[in-house]
Q: What sequence folds into this?
């Protein structure tokens, strides 16, 4: 059976600063019920669970996003994770290798979802940018860090093979949302007390590009520089 | 309106020699009526027009491919080209810049179709390979060249932005089939007498990967080497 990951925009678009909203949340949500993304201007980190889009803002506040709001980049899919097992007392340095070892292959896209209790979680949220937008690399210095001990919540995100480094962040790109919806963001570090890990292997990637956006159409991408800048900004 | 390009496999898969057939022609043709590709073992060059799949074999012979035959790589879409004009007396060195100048943007995928009369056409067809397969680069030395003067026919293929160099051949990837179905292949050189050029801009790429194929799942890709090898083999 084909399992499809939908993506609007590319990480390469964000590198030179194409942060304008080029798709509405309403349109995006016709392609899945689970995912991650960011709003126009890189305004916060989106966590999409069971059809609800949450924004973690750089203030730290979490709110539900409305259908008419726009975004430059997101991934969504219909959740059909298969449970691969329970993780217990896994520290951050072992987390990504542990998840990677459960993938059927590192040569395709996969979804990751993990719910449970975490002894320590560190996240970051990019500060909303104003047009004219800076480069993605410049925003790496304009973000807010958050951390919390002993929290219950959900990790959701994706694994992207290195071959697609310009399309999305290679390796794991994970966001976090606490069960009480009071804490979240782009995941930097996570120590697992006990959590159930679900994986979904995608046979298909549907990549939607903002072909009606003048700035996207005219951008003169420096492809050789893009992957390097992605590594710095997403690292 | 969304315009979708469907692709089975990646050019990166072909680089280390993953030439096994991983999708049937019948499955492929549920996603379009126009396109290009190759059969299992890199057996010939496919030209897909109005729902019919033609194979140009390395013998030079052209035949219609059956639904149960398999392939490792192909692109298809539903033809809705818009005519951008007539080209007259365009020599090969000017052809690709001329087509590129008609694209709405070089930052997305586009389909190209050109029908008319050509004063000179040069093509190549890769010789069918047997398992265990060699690398793509090795096959560049195992191909047959064909040429013909004053021929009527169709050019069909795709433009891929440089960012997606591992996914497909960056720039133009064009195949040719004469109107009498007696001559064709992967296009190397073309002088236009008079031809109508059609372009179709894609907002969406649907990339389907052979996630059930053991060789694909296990392949340890050398991403840094892949794009270089693609440039050599497809140049």
A:
């Amino acid at each position: 059976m084909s399992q499809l990951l939908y993506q609007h925009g590319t990480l390469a678009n964000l590198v030179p600063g194409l942060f304008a909203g080029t798709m509405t949340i309403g349109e995006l949500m016709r392609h899945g019920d689970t995912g991650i993304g960011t709003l126009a201007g890189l305004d916060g980190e989106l966590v999409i669970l069971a059809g609800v889009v949450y924004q973690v803002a750089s203030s730290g506040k979490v709110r539900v996003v409305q259908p008419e709001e726009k975004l430059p980049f997101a991934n969504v899919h219909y959740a059909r994770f298969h449970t691969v097992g329970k993780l217990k007392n896994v520290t951050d340095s072992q987390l990504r290798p542990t998840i990677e070892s459960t993938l059927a292959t590192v040569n395709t896209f996969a979804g990751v979802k993990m719910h449970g209790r975490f002894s320590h979680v560190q996240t970051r949220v990019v500060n909303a940018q104003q047009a004219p937008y800076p480069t993605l690399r410049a925003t790496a210095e304009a973000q807010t860090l958050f951390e919390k001990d002993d929290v219950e919540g959900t990790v959701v995100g994706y694994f992207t093979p290195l071959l697609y480094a310009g399309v999305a962040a290679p390796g794991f790109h994970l966001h976090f949302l606490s069960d009480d919806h009071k804490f979240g963001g782009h995941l930097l570090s996570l120590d697992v007390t006990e959590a159930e890990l679900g994986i979904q292997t995608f046979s298909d990637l549907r990549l939607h590009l903002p072909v009606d956006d003048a700035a996207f159409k005219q951008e003169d991408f420096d492809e050789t520089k893009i992957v390097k800048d992605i590594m710095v900004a997403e690292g």
In short: The interface with chain A takes residues 2, 4, 10, 12, 104-105, 107-108, 161-167, 201-209, 211-212, 216-219, 221, 223, 226 of chain B (CB under 8 Å). Chain B has six helices and 14 strands. The domain at 4-234 of chain B is CATH 3.30.1330.80 (60s Ribosomal Protein L30; Chain: A;).
